[in-house]
Design brief:
mainly alpha; Ammonium transporter fold
């Protein structure tokens, strides 16, 4: 009604005068800051949770059709298991009472936001503990998803879930406490903004140990040592999964700013979004061009991993590079993946989806690249962090894998592996109309 009565120019002049009357240094209230910061973590959390769907679709596309249903089950189940275990022990172990040490408190997380606000009155600070838990718990599942793809098609379901409990309840939170929980690595100055090492390399080291101890799929390597390709079932699903992961990564990196209550925070978040996107573009383009040069054709599976490699690489330091430098950091990740995947094969390590190359190799690269754009970090300190976390996760994961192998067993029988984990572990198929094994089971 007012806009109809007042001329447009007069409205604009009034709005301009109102803006000029506000002091340039005006800040939002403590309560408003509390709300904005909480909102950032909640929004980032559900974007990262959506990455679980991305991993499920990516892995479903890259495994053979006889294993698609079981890989989908593993991905949705590991998310649920990781959330429960992190609630029971992981969160407090990672964040409470670390104080420059090596781990926190063994206790269950229980939010007390309402009571804390009642005690503080109008003294608002930070964000709700509930939003912090939600944002952190979805990260945990990402590390476990890395392992899932690497050991796919030959691991038993329930031993894998037991390892997920160990990884998400003990291994991940302990090494995470060293940096994000203000432990000993944080005091040394080690920097990992959103988890190139703490999330991706952690999952990568655990996956590497699992792949070595589990052994390769039947027929992956011939008697002469030649690598035999085992193409995935559905590159459409794999592409969809990559797109979902790409979108989820904006929450993964952007919300790791942990605050959205000031103009400087808004600027930082915007830079992180732009750099995250450009790194993925750099990784994809580099992988596409390099596969054309090396193999004579553009390899879609490698190109998808190139995009993910760029995303992993920028995760350790997405706030400080310029967009062009972020693109170059991602491009190096894309190049590394193209060479790393066949190198891992030459070592006779069977990584079903290439996760070791994407998450471990490019996680290390991204962490070591931080000092190029962040003068507050040093290569020596970054190297100490990479080596310490690598050694800890590798040792503890190897102990867990060997213990499971010696007790409950971790590998499907040769017959079950040939039949496929869908029928062997679930008694159903993802694609029953194909009729591959439907008649082999009787109920």
């Amino acid at each position: 009604m007012i806009s109809k009565l007042m001329p447009k120019k007069l409205l604009l002049a009034a709005a301009g005068a109102l803006l000029l009357s506000v002091p340039a240094s005006a800040a939002v209230s403590g309560e408003t800051a509390y709300i904005f910061n909480t909102l950032l973590l909640l929004m980032g959390g559900f974007l990262v949770m959506w990455m679980a769907a991305g991993f499920a679709m990516l892995e479903a596309g890259l495994v053979r059709s006889k294993n698609v249903g079981e890989i989908c089950l593993k991905n949705i189940a590991l998310y649920a298991v990781a959330c429960v275990v992190y609630l029971l022990v992981g969160y407090e172990l990672m964040y409470t009472g670390v104080n420059g040490g090596y781990f926190g408190t063994f206790a269950m997380f229980s939010p007390n936001d309402a009571a804390a606000l009642a005690e503080k009155g109008a003294d608002y600070s930070g964000h709700t503990t509930g939003s912090d838990f939600f944002f952190q718990v979805v990260f945990v599942a990402t590390a476990a998803s890395v392992v899932s793809g690497t050991v796919a098609e030959r691991i038993k379901l329930f031993p894998f879930m037991i390892f997920t409990v160990i990884l998400t309840g003990l291994i991940y939170p302990i090494q995470g406490s060293w940096v994000w929980g203000q432990g000993w690595l944080a005091e040394k100055g080690f920097s990992d903004f959103a988890g190139s090492t703490l999330v991706h390399s952690c999952g990568g080291w655990a996956a590497l140990m699992g792949a070595i101890i589990l052994g390769p799929r039947i027929g992956k390597f011939g008697p002469d040592g030649k690598v035999r390709p085992m193409p995935g079932s559905n590159m459409t699903l794999a592409t969809l999964g990559t797109f979902i992961l790409w979108v989820g990564w904006f929450g993964f990196n952007g919300s790791s700013q942990l605050a959205m209550a000031s103009a400087s925070d808004a600027v930082a978040i915007s830079n992180v979004y732009v750099n995250t996107n450009m790194a993925a573009c750099g990784g994809l383009i580099a992988a596409m061009l390099l596969t054309k040069v090396v193999y004579g054709k553009a390899d879609l599976s490698m190109i998808l991993n190139g995009a993910l490699a760029g995303l992993v690489a920028i995760t350790a330091g997405p706030a400080t590079p310029t967009p062009l430098v972020a693109t170059l950091i991602g491009a190096v990740g894309g190049v590394l993946v193209v060479f790393s995947v066949p190198f891992v094969d030459k070592l006779k390590i069977d990584d079903t989806v290439g996760a070791i190359s994407v998450h471990l190799v490019c996680g290390i690269w991204g962490t070591m690249a931080v000092p190029f754009t962040n003068p507050d970090t040093h290569f020596g300190t970054q190297a100490i962090g990479v080596l310490a976390i690598g050694a800890f996760v590798s040792l503890t994961s190897a102990i867990a894998w060997f213990a499971l192998k010696a007790t409950v067993g971790i590998r499907l029988s040769a017959e079950d592996e040939e039949l496929g984990s869908d029928l062997a572990e679930m008694g159903m198929e993802a694609y029953p109309e194909f009729g591959r094994g439907s008649q082999k089971l009787s109920f």
